[in-house]
Design goal:
Elements lengths: L9 H8 L1 E4 L8 H7 L2 E6 L13 H11 L5 H4 L15 H4 L22 H5 L11 E4 L23 H17 L4 E6 L4 H13 L5 E6 L6 H8 L10 H10 L46 H24 L18
Parallel strand pairs: 1-3, 2-3, 2-4, 4-5
C-alpha cells in the first residue's frame, strides 16, 4: 500500500508509483484528480462472525482487507495493469475511456503536475531506466457487518444484519463510490454469504449508473484440486476449516490459536458430482465451525496467499484493460418503427 505517513504527500507517491491509496486519507480538494488517475476503486466486504475458538471474529475482514491490499501491487511482479501500458497497447487510460461527466464518470484527465506525479499516460509508459508504474487503486473502508447464516448467528460474537438491510446498504455504498468518480469498482469478498447480497446490489446499481463492478471471492481463487494438493484428501474448505484458517495465517498468524481446538470433521457432501447449494439449519457435527484444523500451518497460509493474490491481480489486469460498458438505458424496448 502507498505510504500515507502524516505529512507525506501520499497522493503524489501513488501517482508516481501506483499501488493503493486509502480514500479516507485523500483531501476532498484532490478527489477529482485521484479519480481521474485511478484505474479502479476497491471495496473489501467481510463480516464479524464466529469462526470457532481458534479464529478471530474478524476472520472475514482480515481476508477481505488482506487480499484487497494485494489487488494493486507493483507491476514488476505482475505486468502493468494500466490500459495502454506494457506490450499489449490497448485503450486509453480509464479517465479518458469513460463517458463525459453527467452520470458520475471521472474527469477525462488529471492535473498531476501539481502533485508531482506526471500525467497518467506518462506514468503508464516509464522513461528508460525508470520502473514501470503499477496499477493505481483507491481503497475504500471495508464493510464490516453482513447477513450471516443461521448456522453462525447463535454463536458468540456474530453480528448479523438482515439480508434485505444488507442489500440496501450495499447498494447505497456501491452507488456512492461510483458517484464519487469511480465507475470501475472491485469488491473483494471474505464472507461467502455476501456473494448473494453484493451481487443483488451490484445489479441494482448497474441499471442506474455507468459502471463496471467486479466481485471476487478470495475463497474461489484457489481451486479444490489445489487445496487437495495442499492438505490431502480430508475436507479442508469448510467454514473455519483448514483452508480458511491458513488464509488468516497468511496475513496475521498472531491472530490464530491452532491449539485451541481439536479437529471436528465436517458432515460429508452429497455423493454426486453435480453442482448444488445445500442450506441446512444445523449440519452435524457443527460448533459454529467444522474442519481438520491440524492440517493448517503458516507455510500453507503463505501458499494460499500467494496463489489467491496472483489470481486476483490477473483478474484485475484483464478487467482494467477491457473496454468500459455503455451507459444503462431506461428504455430497453425498441421504439415504434424500429428494428
Amino acid at each position: 500500500m502507498t505510504d500515507v505517513t502524516p505529512g507525506g504527500d501520499h497522493v503524489a507517491a501513488w501517482l508516481a508509483h501506483g499501488g493503493l491509496v486509502p480514500v479516507a486519507r485523500v483531501p476532498g480538494g484532490e478527489l477529482a484528480a485521484v479519480a481521474g488517475a485511478a484505474d479502479f476503486a476497491v471495496l473489501p466486504v467481510g463480516a464479524v462472525e464466529w469462526h470457532g475458538p481458534h479464529l478471530p471474529l474478524g476472520t472475514d475482514l482480515i481476508l477481505a482487507e488482506g487480499f484487497a491490499a494485494e489487488s494493486a501491487t507493483s507491476s514488476a511482479a505482475t505486468g502493468s495493469a494500466r490500459p495502454g501500458g506494457g506490450s499489449g497497447g490497448g485503450a486509453a487510460g480509464p479517465g479518458a475511456a469513460w463517458p463525459a461527466r453527467g452520470d458520475a464518470a471521472p474527469a477525462a484527465g488529471v492535473d498531476a503536475a501539481s502533485s508531482g506525479g506526471g500525467t497518467p499516460d506518462e506514468a503508464a509508459t516509464p522513461a528508460e531506466g525508470r520502473p514501470a508504474v503499477g496499477p493505481r487503486g483507491v481503497l475504500f473502508p471495508a464493510v464490516p457487518y453482513a447477513a450471516c447464516p443461521g448456522q453462525t448467528r447463535p454463536w458468540p460474537g456474530t453480528v448479523a444484519i438482515r439480508p434485505e438491510i444488507a442489500v440496501g446498504y450495499l447498494a447505497d455504498v456501491i452507488e456512492g463510490i461510483v458517484a464519487a468518480g469511480f465507475p470501475r469498482l472491485l469488491i473483494v469478498n471474505g464472507h461467502d454469504a455476501n456473494m448473494s447480497t453484493v451481487r443483488a446490489a451490484m445489479e441494482w446499481v448497474s441499471g442506474r449508473r455507468t459502471a463496471s463492478l467486479l466481485l471476487v471471492n478470495w475463497f474461489q481463487l484457489v481451486t479444490p484440486a489445489e487445496t487437495t494438493e495442499l492438505y490431502g484428501p480430508l475436507v479442508s474448505r469448510g467454514h473455519g476449516g483448514a483452508y480458511e484458517t491458513s488464509g488468516v495465517l497468511g496475513f496475521d498468524p498472531g491472530a490464530v490459536r491452532l491449539g485451541a481446538v481439536d479437529d471436528l470433521p465436517p458432515k460429508p457432501k452429497l455423493p454426486v458430482t453435480h453442482p448444488y447449494v445445500l442450506v441446512e439449519s444445523r449440519p452435524d457435527p457443527w460448533q459454529g465451525w467444522s474442519g481438520h484444523i491440524s492440517l493448517a500451518d503458516e507455510p500453507a497460509g503463505r501458499r494460499v496467499r500467494e496463489l489467491a493474490g496472483t489470481r486476483l491481480r490477473e483478474v484485475v489486469a484483464a478487467w482494467v484493460a477491457a473496454p468500459p460498458p455503455a451507459p444503462p438505458t431506461a428504455d430497453p424496448l425498441p421504439t415504434e418503427g424500429g428494428s
